[in-house]
């Protein structure tokens, strides 16, 4: 995964942590951070808006995000790294320590949470050259799609030279996911002053370096694997059952959002009528 010299870097170790929920076949799970939420929310409405407050909040978010980026990009000397590794190891209550290497690099663990709104594809189980149905494998590519539990997380043992893109590829390889790695992106998430900040990591950023600078506190910094919404989706890469399932999911989500908007405007209309009924003409 990286060009590090130590043996622990050549053979990364993996540890998986699952929640109580299990993955299901074709089902829909709501995602409160979905872009649909923003798209279907009326921007010009009768409801009061606090534009000034929103602007101030957005400015604060940008500043916090810029501070995080600059913090992660600061140059560290070997002495700085040794000191931070020592401080990091003193704060954790597990055996997930960071270790320095002679060449100045270091290894350690990062925890990645999964927040995938769409199913992932894996090869069908094979037995003796035959698939589950007992038929011989043909030239047709078969794969199984399922949802990963949203509370699933995974620990990766990586190097300070491991990039975000390599982390994504390692996660997909461990789960034998055959989807294109370009469909996914790694995000950093932080909580400050009751606000949640999320930033997409570039492909060449070093997650372990960010982990070291931020410390082991998951509220200060955590990593999340999500769909990469910036690129075009290659719908031709999906099978017919998958595409039909996506259409059903989108239809249910659309109907739910339309229902919420209709109820919102109906409630506003009732309040307006009540105000008109209680007001004095003139």
What does this structure look like?
This protein has 282 residues and is an alpha+beta fold. It has helices at 7-10, 35-39, 51-73, 78-91, 164-174, 207-214, 240-278, and strands at 14-17, 99-100, 106-114, 120-122, 144-146, 153-159, 184-192, 195-200, 222-227. Strands 1, 2, 3, 6, 7, 8 and 9 form a seven-stranded mixed sheet that branches. A two-stranded antiparallel sheet has the order 4-5. Strand 2 and strand 3 (106-114) form a beta hairpin. The longest helix has 39 residues, at 240-278. The protein starts with 6 loop residues before the first helix and ends with a helix.
Number of helices: 7
Q: What's the gyration radius in Å? A: 24 Å
Q: Characterize the biggest β-sheet.
A: 7 strands, mixed
Measured between the Cα atoms of the first and last residue, the distance is 76 Å
* Shape type: flat
Total beta-strand segments = 9
Tell me roughly what share of residues is in helical segments. 25-40%
Low-confidence parts = 1-53, 132-137
Structure class? alpha+beta
Strand-and-helix sequence, N→C?
Answer: HEHHHEEEEEHEEHEH
Lay out the secondary structure.
Blueprint: H1 7-10, E1 14-17, H2 35-39, H3 51-73, H4 78-91, E2 99-100, E3 106-114, E4 120-122, E5 144-146, E6 153-159, H5 164-174, E7 184-192, E8 195-200, H6 207-214, E9 222-227, H7 240-278
Parallel strand pairs: 3-9
Antiparallel strand pairs: 1-6, 2-3, 3-6, 4-5, 7-8, 7-9
């Amino acid at each position: 995964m990286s060009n590090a010299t130590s043996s622990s870097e050549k053979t990364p170790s993996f540890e998986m942590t699952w929640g109580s929920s299990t993955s299901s076949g074709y089902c829909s799970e709501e995602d409160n951070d979905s872009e649909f939420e923003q798209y279907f929310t009326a921007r010009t409405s009768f409801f009061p808006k606090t534009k000034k407050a929103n602007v101030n909040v957005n400015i604060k978010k940008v500043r916090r995000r810029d501070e995080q980026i600059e913090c992660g990009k600061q140059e560290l000397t070997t002495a700085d790294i040794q000191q931070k590794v020592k401080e990091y190891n003193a704060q954790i209550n597990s055996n997930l320590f960071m270790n320095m290497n002679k060449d100045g690099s270091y290894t350690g663990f990062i925890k990645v949470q999964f927040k995938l709104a769409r199913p992932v594809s894996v090869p069908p189980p094979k037995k003796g050259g035959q698939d589950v149905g007992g038929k011989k494998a043909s030239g047709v590519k078969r794969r199984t799609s399922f949802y990963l539990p949203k509370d699933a997380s995974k620990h990766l043992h990586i190097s300070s030279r491991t990039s975000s893109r390599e982390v994504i590829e390692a996660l997909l390889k461990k789960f034998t996911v055959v989807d294109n790695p370009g469909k996914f992106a790694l995000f950093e998430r932080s909580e400050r002053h009751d606000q949640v900040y999320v930033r997409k990591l570039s492909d060449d950023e070093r997650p372990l370096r960010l982990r070291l600078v931020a410390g082991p506190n998951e509220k200060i910094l955590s990593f999340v694997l999500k769909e990469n919404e910036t690129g075009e989706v290659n719908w031709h890469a999906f099978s017919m059952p998958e595409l039909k399932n996506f259409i059903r999911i989108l239809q249910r989500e659309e109907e739910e959002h339309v229902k919420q908007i209709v109820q919102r405007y109906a409630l506003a209309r009732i309040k307006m009528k009540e105000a008109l009924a209680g007001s004095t003409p003139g």
